[in-house]
Specification:
Rossmann fold; 8 helices; 7 strands; alpha/beta; 14% strand
């Protein structure tokens, strides 16, 4: 019987949006597990800050500037990663986010939404994941093995009020995860797996305006989220990283096309 292993050391991971809080933590945790990490971000100085922290702990990492909405930029990033590390085993499509101009509220009705902002949210979350998988997934298809991790959301399961563009985009990411898992297996190799995590509610730059007042107390929306979360708190970035490491390991070797909720019980609780 095969021994269960959570070891991911010796692999190379590419993480987009790696200058952000959640993916920056993922990068640091992977590096601590012996993974060589390429941190891709449009704002490369933010990625470099994470790289400096990783290297200070003895890990191996590089920062690479990349625009997930520009295929040529991603192809250039791929060449830089291959030049430095020689191969890619793991792709984390971490770039994503929301915009206030694509979010309804007391001061912005659905009928007055900024359509350019709406498209921006879809492009960043969906098109960015598709383009990055096209560029780096081609390496996995050629070598016949690897893991792709997408970042879905609670909004992938249940539409949330106000965030109309973000909900639609994250539902599309979950669907793309399932589609891509089947596509790789049926056309290239059964040793390529594609999964996603669906984080519950964390306080981030993109959602803080919805969840927290300036004095640090919850908004009405923030309080409703906490009330519907059985664990009665927001998640922490470190709590997302553990599931990603598991999904990339042999311990999850039969997990494919799955969207894993990491939400403190939010999706399990009906409210009564």
């Amino acid at each position: 019987m095969k021994e269960i292993s959570f070891d991911i050391s010796g692999q190379t991971a590419v993480i987009t949006g790696a200058g952000g809080i959640i993916c920056g933590v993922m990068a640091k945790e992977m590096a601590r597990k012996g993974v060589r990490v390429a941190l891709l971000d449009l704002f490369v100085d933010k990625a470099q800050q994470v790289v400096d922290e990783i290297r200070a702990e003895g890990g191996t990492a590089i920062a690479v500037k990349a625009n997930v909405l520009d295929k040529a930029s991603l192809e250039q990033a791929r060449e830089e990663v291959l030049k430095e590390f020689g191969s890619v085993d793991i792709l984390v499509n971490g770039a994503g986010g929301n915009k206030a101009q694509a979010t309804t509220g007391a001061e912005l009705s659905f009928f007055d939404l900024d359509l350019d902002a709406f498209k921006w949210v879809f492009d960043l979350n969906v098109t960015g994941a598709v383009l990055t998988t096209m560029v780096f997934g081609e390496l996995l298809a050629k070598q016949g093995y690897g893991n792709v991790i997408n970042i879905a959301s609670m909004a992938s399961y249940h539409p949330l009020t106000n965030t109309v563009a973000y909900c639609g985009a994250k539902a599309a990411v979950a669907n793309f995860t399932e589609w891509m898992a089947v596509h790789f297996n049926k056309n290239y190799s059964t040793n390529i797996r594609v999964n996603a995590i669906a984080p519950g509610f964390l306080l981030t730059t993109q959602n803080q305006f919805l969840m927290q007042k300036e004095d640090g107390t919850p908004t009405d929306r923030g309080q409703r989220v906490l009330d519907k979360t059985p664990m009665a708190r927001y998640g922490q970035p470190e709590e997302m990283a553990g599931a990603v490491i598991w999904l990339c390991s042999d311990a999850a070797s039969f997990v494919n096309g799955a969207v894993i909720p990491i939400d403190g019980g939010f999706s399990a609780y009906s409210g009564v």
